Amino acid sequence: MESIEIGAKDRVFVLTGAGISAESGLATFRDSDGLWAGHRVEDVCTPQAWDRNAELVWQFYSARRENAEKAEPNAAHVALAELEKQLGDCFFLCTQNVDDLHERAGSRRMVHMHGELFVSRCSHECGSVPVADRAVYADLASVEKCACGAVLRPHIVWFGETPMEMERISAEISKATVMVVVGTSGSVYPAANFVHWARQAGAQAVYVGPEAPLNASAFTQVVLGKAGMVLPGLFKTL
Ligand code: APR
Questions:
Q1: How many Å apart are CA 36 and CA 83, to the nearest integer?
Q2: Distance from the CA of 182 to the center of ligand 1, in angstroms?
Q3: Interval 23-60: pLDDT, tens
Q4: Which of 102, 131, 156 is the last residue of a domain?
Q5: Reported pTM
Q6: Where in the sequence is the domain holding 123, given as residue range(s)?
Q7: What is the CATH number of the domain that holds 61?
Q8: How many other β-carbons are positioned within 10 Å of the β-carbon of residue 77?
């Protein structure tokens, strides 16, 4: 069984993707039974889709809310929360996932670079603060309104929009000595570049997932296997 040794001087940056939630029963994006099957990305996950048919967009995210609500964190989420408990400030987690399974497993030093499924915000960007929202909307008429009168939209980074928290993320990557990437196909940027940034800063980089990602050659180590099987025994804190 492979392991990653983490010493007192190490700082660990973890990037996760849809694969870490696969064993919790949430579909990944690019597998054949993935979320996009039956929905063209352009129909649901772009600002243009929102302008064209906000109701369809809300129906899509409402279905994802229903699935995520039923899902439970798996052994991989728990392993990362436990590592954070051991490392404290020397640990940082960036997820591309919009589900809340990392938080529910106990992760705290983390960001959602592609937004959060259970948060909504003003669709007119009036400056109001995003709000917690677990509602499932069948039609646009039932969607909550912002104080300014505009309808709320999902707090999700759509294709063509800028990922969140990039300053904090790049600051954490520049300090990291170990990067661990879990369950992401390496096909969406800028996340697919994080491994290159970390390597340029001198870090070792480990990928964990059942198949090699598109950017596999950038890693110092690729551990093939399901996240829930590999992560619980992967870290050896010295
Ligand atoms: N454990 C670890 N990895 C897994 C598992 C598992 N049990 N099952 C599948 N995987 C891997 C697949 O091999 C694949 O490489 O998870 C990866 C999922 O890839 P994608 O579906 O492309 O998801 P992701 O990389 O997270 O997508 C990135 O794209 O659509 C956008 O914003 C969306 O955040 C998303 C981004």
A1: 32
A2: 8
A3: 999 988 877 666 665 777 778 899 999 999 999 999 99
A4: 156
A5: 0.96
A6: 28-70+115-156
A7: 3.30.1600.10
A8: 30
